[in-house]
Design a protein that fits this description.
Blueprint lengths: L15 E7 L4 H6 L16 H10 L5 E6 L3 H10 L2 E5 L10 H15 L6 E6 L7 H10 L5 E6 L2 E2 L3 E4 L3 H5 L8 H7 L2 E4 L28
Parallel strand pairs: 1-2, 1-4, 2-3, 5-8
Antiparallel strand pairs: 4-7, 5-6, 5-7
Helix pairs in contact: 2-3
Length: 222
């Protein structure tokens, strides 16, 4: 069960659990990098992309559920080593590993079962976005105390992570496919929090992105 003692460095007033979506295939990156998994690609300091993304989220949440596709044992092992609780999804009956909606639904169902009553929101981040500052995660989580759904915005561009109050979790748990939570965002609305952090819009899509931390690869909401 996730509770506020899981991460003693997380402020007690921020009662949130992190969700890290790391089940994607990264086919565009792999096609340009001889099949390499972008989540395992090293950043400038040598740390794998997914480990850096997980570290910042772990610093801001009571605990982190990381969703990994079936068979991706290296990513699962790294995230477990980092302190995440790993949830594996797929393959499904059609032979796929599902889309972002399936990943988010699996994580939401898991935290609905395991989060203690003190946990009031979840903070959804992507495993291929390693440049978000830890203080940005904290600010988004703090804002979720007052708003059902909160997302950061850098220079008018909405990014990640996205926080969802506990009342929204059942809607996330019902998602499927590859369109993520767009239907949930449209139904409930999103409060945008202006931040001075370009990392909220910067993801790793191709090998060239590893050397730049700008918003050239803006991601859609989860």
């Amino acid at each position: 069960m996730f509770d506020l003692e899981t991460n003693p460095d997380s402020p007690a007033c921020i009662r949130c659990v992190g969700i890290l979506l790391a089940a994607g295939h990264g086919r565009r990156f792999a096609s340009a990098a001889a099949g390499q998994d972008k989540l395992l690609a090293p950043l400038a300091d040598g740390t794998p992309v997914v480990m850096t993304a997980a570290s910042s989220l772990l610093a801001a949440a009571a605990g982190v559920v990381a969703v990994v596709r079936a068979g991706n044992d290296r990513v699962a092992a790294l995230l477990a080593q980092a302190g995440c609780e790993v949830v594996t999804i797929g393959p499904y009956t059609d032979g796929t590993n599902g889309g972002m909606g399936d990943s988010l639904a699996a994580a939401a169902r898991h935290v609905m079962r395991t989060a203690s009553p003190d946990v009031q929101s979840c903070l959804v981040a992507l495993g291929d976005m390693p440049w978000i500052r830890a203080d940005t995660f904290l600010r988004v989580a703090e804002a979720a105390k007052e708003h059902p759904i909160v997302a950061p915005a850098w220079q008018g561009q909405r990014g990640h992570p996205v926080a969802f109050q506990r009342s929204i979790w059942p809607a996330l748990a019902a998602l499927a496919g590859d369109v993520g939570a767009r239907s949930v965002l449209a139904r409930h609305g999103v409060t945008e929090l202006a931040v001075d952090d370009a990392g909220v819009c910067a993801d790793v899509d191709t090998p060239d992105d590893l050397s730049t931390a700008d918003c050239g690869g803006q991601s859609a909401p989860p």
